[in-house]
C-alpha cells in the first residue's frame, strides 16, 4: 500500500477520519473541561494543569521520539522484524517512563509545588505509562494506513475521560480523584488495543542489543523531541515560582485550548508520514510532490486555525473556563499564532525525520528552547500570563523558521513553491476585518470569518484538487503519487 498509487488518497481520507475523531474528542472536552475548571476553581485548576504539563514533559523526555522512529522503521521492515520492534519498544517504554515519573515526583515534592501536586504526578504518571504502551501497540495500524481503527481507539480514550470528568463533577469530588482519570482512560484504551490489534506480540521484550540499536538511531531525534515537548510548556511550569497562582490559572486555561487544537497539525502530517518515509527511500519525485501538497494544506489550515481561534477567543474561554477566566481571552488570542506555526513545524519536522536528519531537528529545537527560556524569564515576571504567551509564540515561530531553513539547506530540491502565500494573504485580508468588525457574538464572527477565508481560497484556486479527489473517490487515477 505505501508504494502504491492509492496510498495518497487513503492517507488523505485517513487524515479526515482522524481529524473528525479528534474534533469529536475536542467537543467532548468542551463539554467536560468547563465543568472541571469551574468545579475546581482557578487555584486547583492551575495545580491540575501544572501536573499535566509536568507529565507531558516527562512523556516527551521518555517517549524520546521513539514512536516516530518506530513508525519509520516499521514502514520499511519485514514481518519478523516488525514483531521484534514492537515488543522491544514496549519494554523500553515501561522502563524509561516509569523512571521518568519517579523523578518527576521527587522534583515536584522538592520544588515547592506542594504535596498535592506531587501526589498528582505520581497517580497520573501511572496513566502516562499505560498511555505510551498503548500508543506503541497501535504502531502497526499507523504504518499500514489503517486510520479508521486507529481513530476509534483514540476516540474511546477521549470518551472515557469525558465520562469520568462528568461523574466526578456530579459527585462533588475534590482535586485528588481527578488525577485517576488518566489511569482509567489509558487502561481502557490499552485493553481495546490488545483486543483489536492481533498481529503483534503483547508481551514486552528485553533484547538489550535491540534496545541499543534503537537507542543509537533515536538518540539525536530523542533529544530534539524532548526539547520540543519542553519548550512550549516552560511558561506554565515557570508560572508558579515567577508569577502568582491566578496568572497560572489564566495562562493554563488558554494553554489547555491551544494544546487541544494544536494536535491537529500532527494528525494531518503523521498520517502521511509512512508515505513520506517510503518515498524518501525509493522515490524522490514522489517525495517532492507529497511535501508540496502537504505544505499547501498546512498553510491553509494554519491560517484558518489562527484566524478562528483569535476571533472566537471570548466564546472559547467562556465555554471552557467561564467568566472568572476573562483575562485568558487576550492570552488565547496571542497564543493563536502558535497554531499557524504548528502546522509548519509538523510538516517540516516530519520531512526531516523521514530523511533521517536527526541532527537538524536537534539544532532547531535547541534554538527554540533558548528563545523560550529567555522569553519566559524576561516576560513572565512583569507581564504574567500575557508575557508567557508572547514567549511561547516567539519560540514556536523560531522553531518553524529553523526547520524550514535546515531542510532547504540539506535538500534545495525540496524548497516548496510558495505561490499560495499571496492568495492566503488575500483571504486573510478579507476575513480578518470581517471577523473584527461584525457586530455579532464572537462565535458567529469566527464562523463568518472562517467561511469568508475559505471562500476566497476556493475562488482563487488555492485548494489542492487532490483533497476533493481523495474524498470523492476510493481510488485515484493510476500514476499519481
Architecture blueprint of SSEs:
Layout: H1 7-63, H2 66-76, H3 79-110, H4 115-137, H5 139-143, H6 147-170, H7 175-178, H8 181-196, H9 208-230, H10 234-242, H11 245-261, H12 263-282, H13 284-320, H14 328-335, H15 337-354, H16 358-410, H17 421-437, H18 442-459, H19 465-472
What keyword list fits this structure?
single chain, 481 residues, mainly alpha, 0% strand, disordered C terminus
Mean pLDDT: 83
What percent strand? Answer: under 5%
**Low-pLDDT regions:** 474-481
Percent helix, as a range, is over 70%
Report the major sheet: none
Contiguous helical run count: 19
Shape: globular
Order of helices and strands: HHHHHHHHHHHHHHHHHHH
* Separation, N- and C-terminal Cα atoms: 12 Å
Structural category is: mainly alpha
| Counted beta strands | 0
- Rounded to an integer in angstroms, the radius of gyration calculated over CA atoms is 22 Å
How many distinct domains?
A: 1
Structure in a nutshell:
By secondary structure, the chain is mostly helical.
Description:
With 481 residues, the protein is mostly helical. The chain has one domain. The chain is built from 19 helices and no strands. Mean pLDDT is 83; it is low at 474-481.
Amino acid at each position: 500500500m505505501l508504494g502504491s498509487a492509492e496510498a495518497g488518497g487513503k492517507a488523505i481520507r485517513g487524515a479526515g477520519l482522524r481529524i473528525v475523531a479528534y474534533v469529536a474528542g475536542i467537543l467532548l472536552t468542551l463539554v467536560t473541561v468547563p465543568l472541571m475548571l469551574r468545579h475546581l476553581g482557578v487555584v486547583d485548576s492551575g495545580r491540575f494543569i501544572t501536573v499535566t504539563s509536568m507529565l507531558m514533559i516527562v512523556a516527551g523526555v521518555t517517549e524520546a521520539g521513539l514512536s516516530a522512529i518506530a513508525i519509520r522503521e516499521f514502514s520499511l521492515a519485514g514481518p519478523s522484524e516488525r514483531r521484534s520492534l514492537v515488543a522491544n519498544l514496549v519494554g523500553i517504554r515501561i522502563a524509561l517512563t516509569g523512571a521518568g515519573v519517579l523523578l518527576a515526583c521527587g522534583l515536584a515534592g522538592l520544588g515547592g509545588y506542594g504535596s498535592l501536586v506531587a501526589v498528582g504526578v505520581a497517580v497520573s504518571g501511572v496513566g502516562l505509562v499505560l498511555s505510551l504502551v498503548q500508543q506503541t501497540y497501535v504502531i502497526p495500524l499507523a504504518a499500514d494506513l489503517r486510520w479508521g481503527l486507529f481513530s476509534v481507539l483514540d476516540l474511546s480514550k477521549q470518551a472515557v475521560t469525558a465520562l469520568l470528568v462528568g461523574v466526578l463533577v456530579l459527585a462533588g469530588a475534590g482535586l485528588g480523584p481527578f488525577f485517576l482519570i488518566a489511569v482509567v482512560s489509558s487502561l481502557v484504551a490499552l485493553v481495546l488495543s490488545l483486543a483489536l490489534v492481533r498481529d503483534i506480540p503483547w508481551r514486552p521484550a528485553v533484547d538489550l542489543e535491540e534496545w541499543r540499536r534503537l537507542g543509537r538511531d533515536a538518540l539525536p531525534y530523542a533529544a530534539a523531541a524532548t526539547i520540543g515537548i519542553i519548550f512550549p510548556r516552560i511558561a506554565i511550569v515557570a508560572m508558579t515560582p515567577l508569577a502568582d497562582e491566578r496568572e497560572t490559572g489564566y495562562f493554563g486555561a488558554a494553554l489547555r485550548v491551544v494544546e487541544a487544537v494544536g494536535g491537529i497539525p500532527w494528525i494531518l502530517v503523521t498520517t502521511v508520514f509512512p508515505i513520506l518515509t517510503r518515498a524518501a527511500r525509493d522515490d524522490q519525485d514522489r517525495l517532492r510532490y507529497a511535501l508540496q501538497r502537504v505544505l499547501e494544506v498546512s498553510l491553509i489550515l494554519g491560517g484558518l486555525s489562527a484566524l478562528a481561534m483569535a476571533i472566537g477567543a471570548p466564546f472559547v474561554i467562556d465555554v471552557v473556563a467561564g467568566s472568572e477566566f476573562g483575562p485568558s481571552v487576550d492570552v488565547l488570542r496571542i497564543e493563536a499564532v502558535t497554531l499557524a506555526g504548528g502546522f509548519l513545524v509538523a510538516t517540516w519536522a516530519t520531512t526531516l525525520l523521514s530523511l533521517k536528519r536527526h541532527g537538524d531537528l536537534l539544532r532547531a529545537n535547541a534554538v527554540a528552547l533558548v528563545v523560550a527560556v529567555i522569553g519566559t524569564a524576561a516576560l513572565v515576571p512583569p507581564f504574567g500570563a500575557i508575557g508567557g504567551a508572547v514567549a511561547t509564540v516567539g519560540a514556536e515561530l523560531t522553531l518553524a523558521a529553523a526547520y524550514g531553513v535546515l531542510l532547504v539547506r540539506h535538500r534545495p530540491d525540496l524548497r516548496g513553491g510558495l505561490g499560495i502565500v499571496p492568495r492566503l494573504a488575500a483571504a486573510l485580508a478579507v476575513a480578518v476585518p470581517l471577523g473584527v468588525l461584525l457586530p455579532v457574538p464572537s462565535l458567529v464572527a469566527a464562523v463568518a470569518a472562517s467561511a469568508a477565508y475559505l471562500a476566497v481560497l476556493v475562488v482563487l484556486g488555492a485548494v489542492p484538487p487532490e483533497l476533493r479527489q481523495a474524498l470523492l473517490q476510493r481510488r485515484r487515477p493510476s500514476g499519481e503519487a
